[in-house]
Design a protein that fits this description.
Helix content is 55%, strand content 17%. With 304 residues, it is an alpha+beta fold.
Length: 304
């Protein structure tokens, strides 16, 4: 008797979950625990750095090892009487939001491993030593750390497949479809978290280039465009190099600093976007010129 397709997929989910829990155990109970123990002796690397590298891996490990894997095992042992996994996955889905933090932190974690491996030979040696063990299967710490980042998309694929193969009258259909929708929302949440993180990161870099003028720094701002521009001086018919930052709510008119210590630009003028008008000029002597007029003042600018 051929096993039904949906059971095969449910078994694959269980098998990959078992392997995944082993991987999490390696990350949390071996890498994290041993690096932390060494950090406490004060010889390798600050404890804070180790915490930053591993983010919330301990919570993720506990959740999968103590809750999700045992629940799946129970379901599969009982499959012949009660062929369903949808309800368990619905219970799991809200907890997957924990991954947002881990995924957001991933690039930073990899950078920290690289930087501290160069700075601290004992730190590098300890990692190399753990990587030589059989449990690591000749793979690097970074490689193992990528696994949680890839886990939610994997759930999504397996569950999609499972729902597709379910017979129309299956008792699990309603639950499985709802579970798939929930997993889909979590995957979106984790991507949105990454995008938001990148936006804030980029914004922070711009603020640093502007010398962090306190009243400009606002995390809700969005940078739309930036670039060099020529300012036309009608008095002596000449142009000078300036730089513009256009945000959703203001235009910053800046002067590049000659001596770049700290900031790259000095903000000469802030113009509110509200009520701002832009008009093209037909000037034979200065092509590509336009006027920007706002509450604060009017600028005559020339683009490249």
């Amino acid at each position: 008797m051929q096993e039904p397709e949906e059971k095969k997929i449910a078994l694959e989910l269980l098998e990959t979950e078992q392997a995944y829990v082993n991987r999490l155990h390696l990350l949390d109970q071996i890498f994290y625990a041993e690096l932390m123990k060494e950090a406490k002796t004060g010889k390798t690397v600050p404890e804070e750095v180790v915490k930053m590298i591993f983010s919330n891996i301990s919570s993720i490990y506990q959740f999968h090892a103590k809750f999700f894997l045992p629940e799946l095992q129970k379901r599969m042992e009982d499959w012949n009487h009660n062929p369903r996994i949808g309800d368990v996955i619905q219970k799991l889905a809200p907890f997957l939001k924990m991954y947002g933090e881990y995924v957001k932190n991933f690039d930073k974690a990899v950078e920290l491993i690289t930087a501290w491996s160069e700075k601290s030979p004992p730190f590098q040696e300890l990692i190399a030593d753990i990587q030589k063990r059989k449990v690591c299967a000749n793979l690097t710490l970074q490689h193992h750390m990528l696994e949680p980042v890839q886990r939610i998309p994997r759930y999504e694929l397996l569950l999609k497949d499972y729902v597709r193969k379910l017979p129309p009258q299956s008792p699990d259909r309603g639950d499985a479809e709802k579970a798939l929708e929930m997993i889909f929302m979590v995957a979106k949440h984790s991507n949105a978290a990454i995008a938001e993180m990148e936006r804030l990161q980029n914004l922070w870099v711009v603020y640093q280039r502007l010398g962090l003028e306190d009243d400009i720094v606002d995390p809700s701002n969005e940078l739309i465009k930036e670039g060099p521009i020529q300012k036309i001086s009608t008095r002596n018919n000449s142009t000078s190099e300036k730089y513009l930052f256009l945000f959703n709510n203001m235009l910053l008119y800046c002067v590049p600093k000659v001596i770049q210590v700290g900031a790259e630009f000095q903000v000469h003028l802030r113009m509110d976007v509200e009520g701002m008008k832009v008009r093209e000029l037909k000037d034979t002597e200065f092509p590509h010129t336009f006027l920007v007029s706002g509450k604060q003042r009017t600028l005559e600018l020339q683009a490249r």
